[in-house]
Amino acid sequence: MRTVEHTRQGEVAQVLTLREEPRRPAPGPGPGRGEVLVRLLVRPVHPGDLVGVEGMPGQPELESEQQPEQQPEARIPGVEGMGVVESVGTDVHAPRPGQRVAVFPAPGTWSDFVVVPAALAVPVPDGVSDETAALMLVNPLTLRMLYRALEDALRGRKGPVLQTAAGSSVGRLVSAAADRHGLELINLVRSTSGAEKVRTLHPSQPVIATCDDDWQGQVRRHAGERGVQVVLDSVGGAITLELSGLLADGGTLVSYGQLGSGTTPLEALRLVARGLTVRGVSILHWMNRTAEERAQDVAFAQDLAQSSPDLLQVAGSYDLADFKAAVEHARRPAKSGTVLLTTPLTADSVQGAAR
Q1: What is the rounded distance in angstroms from the CA atom of residue 274 to the CA atom of residue 263?
Q2: Once rounded to an integer, what is the mean pLDDT over residues 314-322?
Q3: In the 8-state DSSP scheme, what is residue 159?
Q4: Could you say which of 3.40.190.10, 1.10.10.10, 1.10.12.10, 3.40.50.720 is the CATH number of the domain covering 139-284?
Q5: What is the pLDDT of residues 109-126, one digit of tens each?
């Protein structure tokens, strides 16, 4: 059994280690009532996974949660993945052992095994690859949360809407949804080469590279007299001030990530004078939705994985033991898609699985 873990926060290459133990009949405590044990095969490297390892300004260090005489608790990154149900606890009628499932939220997926509530083990539709299944939940569910925030902010009005990191995995989903729903979307990317890629995929949507000196002027020209009504921002940091300046009075900045560097003081945004709204959206709050709403979101994600697997693009795959190389790839600015960590497929891991 292999596990990637850390006992303190810091640079990934310095604090993460691979722990290997002899295979046991049951790795750790077995599944309890209403739980399933999943043998993981593929798990993504999300930006949020790395933030959890490195920490954020203002977050307490892991060691501060321990008493001085105690050993620091080992933490395992990852919240999403796919695998095969190894065993089930009492009162579990589905999924069944041998069935392929995607799991989220499942803290600790950078491991060979994880125990999750049976309700959070989502059956993988027939015909969906393991790689696509590993990306089936977090990003599509994030899209659903962003669109709800967008609808609330627009209040029935028309765009324009500006999104940052349009070439990212979530950005691609937003652009595809904008094409389907007729959303007036303006895309921001870092580089001219990135702009060309997005422009090829979505020729009807303006794409602007922030490396251009006049990128803000380009946004204003595309937005026209109405100005930008909503910004969907996964970058944050120093660019927040410039993004808020592009909003029309009364507009909304929806923040859902922190890929950028630097900081922006809240007072600099002129929230009161311009009537601006700042709203945070996090996939970690998805469980606060009702069971019915979550079921609708999961059904959307399953359908997307079946009908549009190209939107769940893979940038590269690495064995779990090669997590340092995977993280390095995940941080490349020009990558397209999501980097995956894999576990070799063995005969007993798919025994009885629905392929």
Answers
A1: 21
A2: 97
A3: -
A4: 3.40.50.720
A5: 999 999 999 999 999 999
